[in-house]
């Protein structure tokens, strides 16, 4: 029998040092797991010298070693842990030696078992047990727990909220090296939702909590409905902690109450942000927010942003305010009042505008949002066509679906957002509709998903009104950090001749990135961006194109990756030279 021996000496004083030897016939991978599970090894690593602590670690290691071996399918192991020559299991914590010099851990793994008869019953319809939980497969002990959990979860999804294991028999047949498993499930009765009850520390009125949570009282129980209640509370931004648990007992009518424990977030919050581009300059942003303004889980927020600081373009300033009140008009709609004042000093125009909207966010699904509203928009513009005023009644509609695993550093999933805004001209302003869509997808592969392929498609269109009679801040440009890196900011537009330029009626943007984990929190990125601006409402038709490519580094932090990109033009005649982009979060 092959036996591998590993040993190490702790660096301590001569009077306190003790040796730890680990002897086993297990392979490298299993030996590593055994050592990781060992409290004695951990005690050695952390310079523990007190005899009572070492003996306690020794005696806990018997169970830890057996558990580790069972997880890997070894059900006939032999474990010996000797402390200065004495078996640790027989030593008393009351009468201890004054000093411990050596600990020897000997593990003989024994034969590996496979599953024999595996039974979990009764099962709800369409229950899927783990694929490897069947006759002839390695008898990993954790598969028994996973099979039981899968059975319980299926019953819960079938409205049996109190389903639980009733009995479990596990028999190891040592001569045949098989493990027989028989698990009996008690599904309990099918139940309906009862009342939503509250605990914790919140100042939101209880009638508002009922309305916001919108637990479907009287309908069949399903765990996903509880997830949706949690998301509704999260969406308000009012609570620091949200915990939903089921009542221990059913009500007399067989319904099940749900207890929501809520803890309020701090009422006020102030935040800041910054981003730098070598050509566009710096951007500083800040916001101030007041949560639970009127004890209705409502929220008032003010945002401010100054961009173009130190850049080759002018200074842009945006100030906006938003008030949100959940469960207004209906339980699934959030009232949104918004106001924005904006000054834009762009390469091709100057604009001062104000926009005021009233609308509603509508709950559609856990991963989707929808907004619809009405508003008024006014702007004063100086551009290639002279000084002009625009006045509109606007009807903004927005929808999004987000299945990304992380919004700042996604590695899988998709994101899609679409905006449709009909605008009705007043005082001789032309009417039309503006459409913009942004789709993103992410796929990770390789060892430990070290590589991530990210793609993005942007489409924009204005129809009904010609680009010559539309405010330039509603038109489309290409170039810069949000569209084509490596090309100057908004450098691709419509050339009117005589040095005059304006935005286009349509836009196409394509971006691809390959992100690779290098070491620890450091990643490298290669990217390519393509943009096109057209004079018709059909994206890509009669369009001019440019592209950029480059390399970047990412340093992952707890709040998202710090981004550093170097990019240069690869096609088009809108720019040259290297552009630098620094920010927080991935480019898309």
Give your account of this protein's structure:
The protein has 588 residues and is mainly beta. The chain is built from 6 helices and 30 strands. It has helices at residues 28-37, 39-45, 51-71, 141-157, 206-213, 223-236, and strands at 4-9, 19-24, 78-83, 86-87, 102-108, 114-121, 164-173, 178-186, 192-201, 239-246, 255-264, 268-277, 281-291, 299-309, 316-325, 333-346, 349-365, 368-383, 386-394, 397-402, 413-426, 432-445, 451-463, 494-497, 500-502, 506-519, 522-534, 543-557, 560-571, 579-584. The chain is globular, with a radius of gyration of 32 Å. The protein starts with a strand and ends with a strand. The model is unreliable at 1-16 (pLDDT under 50).
Give a count of the beta strands, DSSP E runs of length 2 or more: 30
CA(first)-CA(last) distance: 56 Å
Proportion of β residues?
A: over 45%
Number of helices, where a helix is a run of at least 4 consecutive DSSP H or I residues: 6
Q: Could you say which structural class the secondary elements and strand pairing correspond to?
A: mainly beta
Largest sheet at a glance? 17 strands, antiparallel
- Label the overall shape: globular
Mean pLDDT: 92
User: Which blocks of ≥5 consecutive residues have pLDDT under 50?
Assistant: 1-16
As a whole number of angstroms, the C-alpha radius of gyration is 32 Å
Estimate percent helicity: 10-25%
